[in-house]
C-alpha cells in the first residue's frame, strides 16, 4: 500500500514528505526562495485533492449525477477545466508555463478568496527549473493524497509551520522577514486574550503566524475561533502569498492579507478613508530600518505622527505609532516585539516621553537572547492598551524575564513553564523581586522617560552567562541609562539658557 492509499498521514510522514521537495531544489535555487515555489505547489495539490474529495461526496449524495456533483456550491474553491493537479501532472513540456497559467486561472476563478495567493515565482525560467526538475517535484507531491480525511486542516497547517521554520533555518539572517519564534507569539496571544468575534491585526504579518496563533488560542480554550476577523499586511509579495495559503491551510477562510508597505500605504481603511481600528494588534515590525519615507510620515495624512517623527535611521517608532493609531479606543490592545533599543535610545527620547504620556503603555517585558530568529539579540515585548483600568493608568509594569528562556539544538524558545511565569507576572501587575516592578509615571519622568529595565526591576542573571559577566552587563545597562538621563538633562538646561 503506497502513501496515497493510506487514510491518515502522521506528522512525521508529513514533514518528511514536505521537506523532500526542498531536497529536490537544493543547489538549484537559494534557500531563501524555497517558499516561493514549494508552498504554491503544496497549496495547488491540496485544493485539487479536496476538490476531488468533495466531488466524490457529492456523487454519493446525488446518486452519481456528475453535473450536480460539479456544481460550485459543492466545492470550497472553483478549479477551471484544465487547471487541476492531474492536468499539470500529464504535462511533459513547458511545465512551468502550464503551472503559471493554471495558478492564474484558479486565482481569477476565486476572486474573493484566492487573488494573489500563488505568489509571483518565476515558473517559466527553464535555466532555473527545467521541465524535468518540475516534473520531479510534481511526481514527488503526487505520492500522497492531501485530502481533509487524510490530513485535517490543523495537521496540514502544522506541516506548513514546519516548512516555514525549516526555511528560516536554511535562509539564515533573512528569516526574520517571515518567521517569528512561535513560542513567543503564543505568549503574546495569551496576554491579549482575543475573544470570539473580535478583530485581530498584524501590520507586518510575514507568513501569518501571529494571526493564526490568536485563532489557535481560542480553539485551545474550546471557544469559537472561526468568527475572528483577521487582517494582515505584508510588503513582500511572496511572503504575503504564503500568509494567505497558511491561513487557508489552517482552516481560516475569513482572513484578509494585503500586499503593500504599511507605512506608506496602509491597506485597511474605514469608509471615511481613516485608519481602520482593531480590538487586538500583534506585530513584529522590521527593526531599525533606514530605507523608509520619513518626509511623507512628517505630514502623514492618517495622523500617525502624534508622538513625533522618528529619525531616518530607525523607523521603529513609525510602526509603533501606526499600531497605537490602529487600536480601538474603547478596547484595543497590542503586543509588539521590538529590540531593547526602543526603551532607551537618546535619539528617540521625545517620542518615548510622548508614548509614556499617552497613557497607552501598559507593560514592558524584557526577554532572553535568541528569540529574534537567527539572531542573538534580546527581545522586548511592549504592551499597549486603550481605556486601561483607572488604578493602572498612571503606572507601567516592567518584567525582566531575560533568564526565562530555553535553548535546544541552537534555537531559543519559551517553554510552557516560562510562558506561564511571564503571564502570571503580567496578570498580577505587582512588584515581584527579581522579576517585576511597577513604576509610576512620575518615577519614569524622573528617569528622563527612559524605559530601560534595570531602572525599575532587578536584572535576573542568565544561567548562560558567568556570574562576573552578568554583573558587568547589568552594571553597564544601568550606567548607560543613567548616562542618557544626564545628557538629556544637560541638553534641556542648555536649551533653557539659550532661550533666556
- Counted beta strands: 11
Count every helix, treating DSSP H or I runs of 4 or more residues as helices.
16
Within CATH, the superfamily of the largest domain carries the name Vaccinia Virus protein VP39
Query: Which ranges are low-confidence, i.e. pLDDT below 50, for 5 or more consecutive residues?
Result: 1-6, 173-178, 460-476
Overall 3D form: elongated
CATH architecture level-2 label of the largest domain: 3-Layer(aba) Sandwich
Supply the number of structural domains: 2
Q: Give, in order, the helices and strands.
A: HHHHHHHHEHEHEEHHEHEEEEEHEHH
Mean model confidence by pLDDT: 86
Portion in strands: 5-15%
Secondary-structure class: alpha/beta
Top CATH class of the largest domain? Alpha Beta
What is the helix content?
40-55%
| Rg (CA only) | 25 Å
Largest sheet, in brief, is: 9 strands, mixed
CATH topology of the largest domain: Rossmann fold
Q: What do you see in this structure?
A:
Strands 3-2-1-4-5-7-6-8-11 form a 9-stranded mixed sheet, sandwiched between helices. The longest helix has 33 residues. Strand 2, helix 10 and strand 3 form a beta-alpha-beta unit. The protein has 500 residues and is an alpha/beta fold. The N terminus is likely disordered. Helix 1 packs antiparallel against helix 6 and helix 2 runs parallel beside helix 10. The N and C termini lie far apart (89 Å). The chain is built from 16 helices and 11 strands.
Amino acid at each position: 500500500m503506497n502513501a496515497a492509499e493510506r487514510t491518515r498521514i502522521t506528522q512525521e510522514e508529513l514533514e518528511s514528505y514536505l521537506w523532500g521537495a526542498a531536497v529536490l531544489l537544493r543547489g538549484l535555487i537559494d534557500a531563501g526562495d524555497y517558499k516561493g515555489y514549494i508552498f504554491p505547489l503544496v497549496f495547488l495539490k491540496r485544493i485539487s485533492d479536496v476538490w476531488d474529495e468533495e466531488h466524490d461526496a457529492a456523487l454519493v449524495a446525488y446518486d452519481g449525477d456528475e453535473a450536480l456533483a460539479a456544481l460550485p456550491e459543492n466545492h470550497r474553491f472553483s478549479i477551471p477545466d484544465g487547471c487541476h493537479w492531474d492536468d499539470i501532472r500529464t504535462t511533459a513540456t513547458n511545465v512551468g508555463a502550464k503551472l503559471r497559467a493554471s495558478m492564474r486561472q484558479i486565482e481569477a476563478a476565486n476572486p474573493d478568496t484566492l487573488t494573489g495567493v500563488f505568489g509571483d515565482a518565476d515558473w517559466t525560467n527553464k535555466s532555473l527549473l527545467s521541465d524535468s526538475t518540475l516534473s520531479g517535484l510534481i511526481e514527488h507531491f503526487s505520492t500522497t493524497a492531501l485530502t481533509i480525511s487524510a490530513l485535517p486542516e490543523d495537521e496540514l497547517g502544522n506541516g506548513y509551520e514546519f516548512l516555514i521554520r525549516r526555511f528560516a533555518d536554511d535562509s539564515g539572517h533573512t528569516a526574520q522577514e517571515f518567521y517569528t519564534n512561535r513560542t513567543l507569539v503564543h505568549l503574546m496571544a495569551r496576554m491579549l486574550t482575543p475573544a470570539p468575534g473580535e478583530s485581530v491585526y498584524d501590520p507586518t504579518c510575514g507568513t501569518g503566524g501571529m494571526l493564526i496563533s490568536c485563532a489557535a488560542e481560542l480553539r485551545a480554550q474550546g471557544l469559537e475561533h472561526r468568527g475572528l476577523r483577521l487582517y494582515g499586511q505584508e510588503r513582500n509579495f511572496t511572503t504575503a502569498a504564503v500568509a494567505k495559503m497558511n491561513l487557508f491551510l489552517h482552516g481560516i477562510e475569513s482572513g484578509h492579507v494585503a500586499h503593500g508597505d504599511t507605512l506608506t500605504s496602509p491597506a485597511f481603511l474605514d469608509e471615511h478613508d481613516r485608519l481602520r481600528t482593531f480590538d487586538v494588534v500583534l506585530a513584529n515590525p522590521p527593526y531599525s530600518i533606514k530605507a523608509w519615507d520619513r518626509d511623507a510620515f512628517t505630514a502623514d495624512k492618517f495622523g500617525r505622527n502624534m508622538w513625533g517623527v522618528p529619525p531616518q535611521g530607525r523607523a521603529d517608532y513609525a510602526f509603533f505609532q501606526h499600531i497605537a493609531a490602529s487600536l480601538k479606543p474603547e478596547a484595543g490592545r497590542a503586543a509588539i516585539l521590538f529590540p531593547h533599543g526602543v526603551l532607551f535610545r537618546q535619539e528617540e527620547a521625545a517620542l518615548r516621553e510622548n508614548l509614556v504620556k499617552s497613557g497607552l503603555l501598559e507593560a514592558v517585558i524584557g526577554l532572553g537572547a535568541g528569540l529574534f530568529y537567527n539572531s542573538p539579540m534580546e527581545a522586548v515585548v511592549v504592551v499597549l492598551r486603550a481605556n486601561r483600568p483607572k488604578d493602572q493608568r498612571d503606572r507601567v509594569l516592567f518584567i525582566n524575564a531575560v533568564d526565562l528562556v530555553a535553548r535546544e539544538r541552537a534555537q531559543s524558545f519559551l517553554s510552557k513553564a516560562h510562558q506561564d511565569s511571564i503571564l502570571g507576572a503580567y496578570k498580577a501587575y505587582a512588584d515581584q523581586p527579581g522579576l517585576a516592578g511597577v513604576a509610576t509615571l512620575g518615577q519614569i519622568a524622573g528617569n528622563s522617560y527612559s524605559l530601560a529595565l534595570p531602572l525599575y526591576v532587578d536584572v535576573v542573571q542568565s544561567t548562560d552567562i558567568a556570574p562576573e559577566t552578568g554583573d558587568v552587563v547589568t552594571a553597564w545597562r544601568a550606567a548607560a541609562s543613567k548616562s542618557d538621563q544626564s545628557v538629556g538633562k544637560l541638553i534641556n538646561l542648555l536649551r533653557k539658557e539659550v532661550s533666556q
